[in-house]
Amino acid sequence: MAISPETIKSLELEFQAIQDEICNHMAERGGKMYLETKWSYDAADPTTSGGKSGGGRTRCFEVDRREPVGDGSSWVLKKEDPKNMPFFEKGACNFSGISGPSMPPSAVDRMKLPADTPFHATGVSLIFHPSNPHVPTIHMNVRFFCCGDRWWFGGGVDVTPYYPILSQVVAFHTKLKALCDAHGQDYEALKKECDEYFLLAHRKETRGVGGLFWDGMNGDFDKARAFTMGLGHLFNELYDIFLDNATLAYTDDERLFQLYRRGRYVEFNLVYDRGTKFGLASNGRTESILVSLPSTVHWTYDYTPPSGSNEAYLYNHFLRARNWLSLTEQEIQDMQPPAGYGGVDTGKIVVGPKDTSCCCSCKWCSMHVVVGVGIAAFAAFTIMKKL
After folding, report:
1. Is 258 helix (H, G, I), strand (E, B) or coil?
2. What is the DSSP string of 137-156?
3. 161-174 per-residue burial string, b: 16 or more CB within 10 A, e: under 16
4. What is the rounded distance in angstroms from the CA atom of residue 138 to the CA atom of residue 158?
5. pLDDT, tens digit, for every residue of 22-51?
6. Which residues carry out catalysis?
7. Are the beta carbons of 310 and 337 closer than 8 angstroms?
8. What is the maximum alpha-carbon separation in the chain?
9. DSSP element (H, E) containing 386
10. Distance of alpha carbon 377 from alpha carbon 265, whole angstroms
C-alpha cells in the first residue's frame, strides 16, 4: 500500500497540532514560553545533496544559568536558588517531517528493507526534565515512517520518577490501558515492549516505571493512525497526574539524588535509544536530536542508597518490570514508603562527596558537573557507534 503525498501532509498537520497542544499546555503549567527553532533537513547536512527535503520545529524550554563576569565576554554558572527554580529545568517538544533517498544502514537491517529505498519520516518527540525531584521526567514519541510501499506507525511514553508515588504510577498505567482498550490494542503486550525497550542492560534496571512502546505497527492504517494520534492527544492528561508534585518541598540532597539518577537518562539516550541513533545516522539536526539531554546531571562512583532511605524506596520497588494494575494486597503493603516520604525532610542523605576543597571552593562544583556530562556523553557515543 503506497501512501499518497496528501496523506503524508495530513499526518504532518496532525502531528503539528499535537505539538501545539502540548507546548501550549506546558508553557501554561511552567509559566514560561518555549524557544522555537525552525530547521531544514537539507541544511542540517551540508556535506550531502540531492533527495532530501522537509524539516521541523524544535521547541525548547530551558533555564539560562549563565552569569556574565568581567566585561561580559565570559560567564560562570549561577548558583541554584531552590526557592526560585523554573518549573522545567529543561524540556523540548519537537516536530519533524523529512524525506531522504535512503534509510540509515542500521534501520535497513532491522526493518529488512532494500538498500537505497527512499523514505519519509514524521512525528513528535518530547522530553521534560522538571526542577523539582518529586516530579518525574517524562518522554513521549509518536511517529510514522514509509519506505516505498511499506509503512508503519510507532510510539511510546514512559515516566522516570525519582521519588515515586505508587498511586500516581497506577493512575498513569490505568489511563494507558483505557487508551489501548478504546483502540483495540493489547495493553499488556505494549507495556511488555516498553519494559524491555527502556531497560538499561548494563545497570540491570529499568529506566523508570514504564508505559507503552510499539514500532512497526501496520495492517489497518486508520486503526494504527488513530491509536498513535490518541496517545499524542492524551499526553497532557497523562503528565498532569504528576505535575502538582511541584508543590512538594525538597531538600538539597533530594535534588542531588535527582541529578544522579538523571545520569541513567543520559546513558540510555546515548547508548540504546533508536531515535538518537536514527537521527545521528541520517545526518539530522544534531541540536534537535540531543536536546533531550538534561541541562544538569551528576555521576557518583559506585553509589548505593542507604537502607531504609527514601532513595532506597525507588531502588527496592520501582526499577523493574511490574504489573502495576494487578498488584496484590501484600505487594501494596510491602511498597509502603518510609515515614515522612513525599517532600518531608526525614534527615539528610548523602548522595556523593561534597568536596568544598575543589578548585572553585564550591558545593558539588557546577563546572565539574558540566565537564562530567561532556566526558560521559563522549564515552557513551563511542559505545553507541559500536552497537
Report:
1. helix
2. EEEEEEEEEEETTEEEEEEE
3. bbbbbbebbeebbe
4. 6
5. 999 999 998 888 889 998 887 555 555 557
6. 139
7. yes
8. 66
9. helix 366-386
10. 11
